[in-house]
Specification:
Number of helices: 15
Strand content: 15-25%
Structural class: alpha+beta
Oligomer: single chain
Number of domains: 2
Largest sheet: 6 strands, mixed, barrel
Number of strands: 10
Strand order of the largest sheet: 2-3-8-5-7-6
Helix content: 40-55%
Distance between the termini: 30 Å
Length: 408
């Protein structure tokens, strides 16, 4: 063991002359431990909720949505569709139309989003068929007038499978207001009800056949865009960048993240805010460390002077106190990591903090540990402790030997 390590250990764990300083050092270790443990637990909770939200959204949404900037006819998409079909990582492509309409059922009216989809292809790009809880997703019956409603929407409309509802298209409203025509109204039969556990979808979205949607919104053979799903969601960003380079002038590309960018932005802000706030616990502990090491320099003023007269360099003296800060940081980080991972494991296995399953879609607070978080938290604790010990190390290195031992 090197000289600086031996001296640093003796100064940090000495029981004779600076017991009060040692108490402050141990308090610093406890503070770092609590801060690291809290960071790991809180970040794991954010990770758990983030993964839960992503699984709910991605299981229903496409991985990539493409909309034309200039044209809306089907032929303008053909070069892009041919390119996508040639890629092995693309598992599904489907066109869609989308618009707002007024739904009327049993005297209840509601403005919702009507999405026209291809019944044969929708299962390849969306999880609609997997989310059906009542009826089926049959949108291509003999009259092509089937409609699939969200659970919350069906409940508010008082509709069940087999009921008929009326949809008023916005394309005929202007003519009706000017008394120059009749509003375009179509009747649909509820063929199925889906539930995604997402209020935005379950309360405001309904699905009809693509041809019915084109007729409802007076689009003729035009479409609003195409939806794409890959064999792995990880390919979405890479494909988006590639497609933007080749077709960026004609189309707009929205990945699954872009479709819910506001939600994920809020989640990221909350995550980093929690991280910075909890880092204050470690910062307070590092201030305690700063005080204890500064007191140690004052207490060991004579010893430092003697060491310097024996030939120890200023750099070695500074390293002694930096090592003390490193020991506190590493010890606190290791203990905090152990406690934090222990709490996360107990929550995952025994549900220490349960949730009401009648209100929430899960029975307990979700947690997920990521190695990147462990590395960032550990480095933050060690760096803060090293920064706190730097002042004491610099002060010890600047002591003049003669002044340090003059009155001893």
């Amino acid at each position: 063991m090197s000289v600086d390590r031996i001296i640093a250990r003796r100064y940090l764990f000495s029981k004779r002359t600076i017991a009060f300083v040692n108490v402050i050092s141990f308090i610093s270790i406890i503070g770092v431990t609590i801060g690291v443990a809290a960071l790991i637990v809180v970040l794991s909770v954010f990770n758990g909720f983030g993964s839960l939200v992503t699984s709910l959204l991605v299981s229903f949404d496409p991985h990539l949505r493409i909309e034309s900037i200039k044209h809306t006819d089907v032929t303008s998409y053909e070069p892009l569709v041919q390119y996508l079909k040639s890629q092995d990582k693309v598992s599904g492509i489907a066109p869609f139309v989308n618009g707002k309409a007024l739904v009327v059922s049993r005297g209840v009216t509601r403005v919702i989003n009507i999405r026209g989809v291809d019944p044969d292809e929708i299962g390849k790009v969306s999880g609609l068929k997997d989310k059906i809880v009542l009826g089926n997703a049959n949108l291509k019956d003999e009259d092509k007038n089937g409609i699939v409603l969200g659970m919350a929407l069906a409940d508010r409309l008082g509709s069940v499978v087999g009921d008929t509802i009326s949809v008023v298209s916005p394309s005929g409203v202007e003519a009706a207001l000017l008394q120059m025509g009749q509003p375009l109204i179509r009747r649909f039969r509820v063929s199925g009800i889906y539930e995604t556990n997402n209020k935005d979808y379950d309360s405001y979205y309904a699905y009809v056949n693509l041809e019915s949607g084109q007729t409802l919104f007076a689009l003729n053979q035009q479409i609003d865009g195409i939806e794409v799903r890959f064999t792995d969601i990880a390919y979405a960003d890479a494909f988006k960048s590639t497609l933007e380079k080749q077709f960026g002038r004609e189309f707009r590309f929205l990945s699954w993240f872009d479709l819910h960018k506001e939600l994920y932005t809020v989640m990221q802000v909350e995550r980093w805010s929690a991280y910075l706030i909890l880092c204050l616990i470690v910062a307070v502990a590092s201030f305690n460390l700063l005080g204890s090491l500064t007191m140690a320099v004052i207490e060991k003023r004579r010893d430092i002077g003697i060491l310097k007269t024996m030939g120890i360099t200023n750099k070695l003296v500074a390293r002694i106190f930096l090592l003390q800060g490193l020991v506190v940081g590493v010890a606190g980080a290791v203990l905090g990591m152990g406690i934090g991972l222990g709490v996360v494991y107990m929550q995952k296995r025994y549900h220490l903090f349960p949730l009401d399953p009648t209100v929430y879609i899960i029975s307990a607070i979700p947690v997920e540990v990521r190695w990147f978080d462990l590395v960032v938290v550990t480095l933050a604790a060690i760096v803060l402790c090293l920064l706190a010990s730097r002042y004491a190390a610099k002060r010890a290195a600047q002591l003049v030997p003669v002044e340090a031992i003059r009155w001893e």
